[in-house]
Amino acid sequence: MKITAAVLHEPRGAFKVEDVELDAPRPHEVLVKIVATGICHTDLAVRDQHLPLGLPAVLGHEGSGIVEAVGSSVTRVKPGDHVVLTPASCGECDFCVSGHPSYCEKFSVLNMQGHREDGSCAHHQHGQDLQGLFLYQSSFGSYAIATERNTIKVPTDIPLEILGPLGCGLQTGAGSVLNVLRPQAGESIAVYGTGPVGLAGIMAAKVAGCSVIVAVDINDQRLELARELGATHTVNSRNQSSADYIREHIMPAGLHYTFSTVGRNEVVAEAFKAMRYMGRCVEVGVGTSANLEIPHSLFRMGKSITYAIEGDSVPEVFIPRLIQLYRKGRFPFDKLIKFYDLDQINQAVEDSEKGVTLKAILRMPH
C-alpha cells in the first residue's frame, strides 16, 4: 500500500516527506494507522549515525494509532483497537519470559537492523528497498507495520495523539525510577537532564514518595518546569558543581540514587559524587564517546551504576499503569508536548535540539 513517510536519505541530513510503499502484514504482524508519533533522541542518534542503521530509512518509534489489519496468527489486538507501539521482543528467551523484554536476546535483530529477521524489508521506494521497521514500527509514516508483542492496547477515552511517547521516552524515564531504582518513600534522588526522559523520572520519583528530588540541568526554564512536576530542589550546573551544591545545601551525606539521562562522562561523574555510600546510579543516555569513563575512586564505598533500556518494563503492564497515573493527575506528561504536522518534522527536530520544545509529537496527514 502507498503511505506518506518522512525518509532520511543521508547521515545528518533533513527528513523528506515522500510517498513510500509498505508491505501488508505477515501472519505475526499488525498494520497500524498512525495517528501521531513522538520524536525521540534515539531517532536523532540514528540520523547522526551514533547508532548505525543503513540509509535511506524510515525512522520513528513512539507511534500511537488504530489497528487497521492483523496477520492470521494475531490474537492480542483486532482492527479498531487503539494502540501504542513499543520495541519488539521475541517472547521466548530467558529475559522475555522472566519479565525483562527490553533485554530480549533478539532485541538488536528485531529492532535495529532495518529489516525483518529473515532479511526482508517492509518499506520500498522507486522499486528499491528502504530500511525500516525501526524499533519494529518506523512510525514516521501514516501507517506502520509492528508485531503483536509490541502493539499495546490502550483505552479509547484518552486522546490517542498524546500517548505515543509512553512507548519509549516516557516509559524509559518513569521505568528507570520505578522499575530499576525502586526508591522507597522518604528516600532521595537527583535527576540529571530535564528533557522528557528526565522529567518523566522526576514525576515517577514523586509517585514513589521520594522526599528529596533534585533536578539538575543548565536550562532555567526546564528547571522551573521540573519544580512544577515534582522536583523539591533544582541546580543549574552550568557554573557550579552539582555534587558540591547537593552536599553543601541539600544532603550532606549524599543521595540514595541518581538518574542520568545525558550520556556524558563528566555528568555521570558528578552523579556519582552526589551519592551517599552504596548509592545507585542508572544511566540511559546515548553517549557520543566510545567509552564511559568514571574515576575509580568514585566506585568506593559500594556505589554502583547500571544502564537501563526502556525502563526495564513490561510494556503491556507498565504503559496502562502510566495511563492510570495520568488519569489521576499524578503523571501529567501532556505538559511536555507540542504538536507538529508531519511535513513540519525538520522544524520539530530543530526545536527539540534547541530546547524550544520538550516532546515534539508529529500528527499524521490523514
UniProtKB/TrEMBL annotation:
<comment type="similarity">
    <text>Belongs to the zinc-containing alcohol dehydrogenase family.</text>
</comment>
<keyword id="KW-0479">Metal-binding</keyword>
<keyword id="KW-0862">Zinc</keyword>
<dbReference type="Pfam" id="PF00107">
    <property type="entry name" value="ADH_zinc_N"/>
</dbReference>
<dbReference type="InterPro" id="IPR020843">
    <property type="entry name" value="ER"/>
</dbReference>
<dbReference type="Pfam" id="PF08240">
    <property type="entry name" value="ADH_N"/>
</dbReference>
<dbReference type="InterPro" id="IPR011032">
    <property type="entry name" value="GroES-like_sf"/>
</dbReference>
<dbReference type="InterPro" id="IPR013149">
    <property type="entry name" value="ADH-like_C"/>
</dbReference>
<dbReference type="GO" id="GO:0016616">
    <property type="term" value="F:oxidoreductase activity, acting on the CH-OH group of donors, NAD or NADP as acceptor"/>
</dbReference>
<dbReference type="InterPro" id="IPR036291">
    <property type="entry name" value="NAD(P)-bd_dom_sf"/>
</dbReference>
<dbReference type="GO" id="GO:0008270">
    <property type="term" value="F:zinc ion binding"/>
</dbReference>
<keyword id="KW-0560">Oxidoreductase</keyword>
<feature type="domain" description="Enoyl reductase (ER)">
    <location>
        <begin position="13"/>
        <end position="362"/>
    </location>
</feature>
<dbReference type="InterPro" id="IPR002328">
    <property type="entry name" value="ADH_Zn_CS"/>
</dbReference>
<dbReference type="InterPro" id="IPR013154">
    <property type="entry name" value="ADH-like_N"/>
</dbReference>
<protein>
    <submittedName>
        <fullName>Aryl-alcohol dehydrogenase</fullName>
    </submittedName>
</protein>
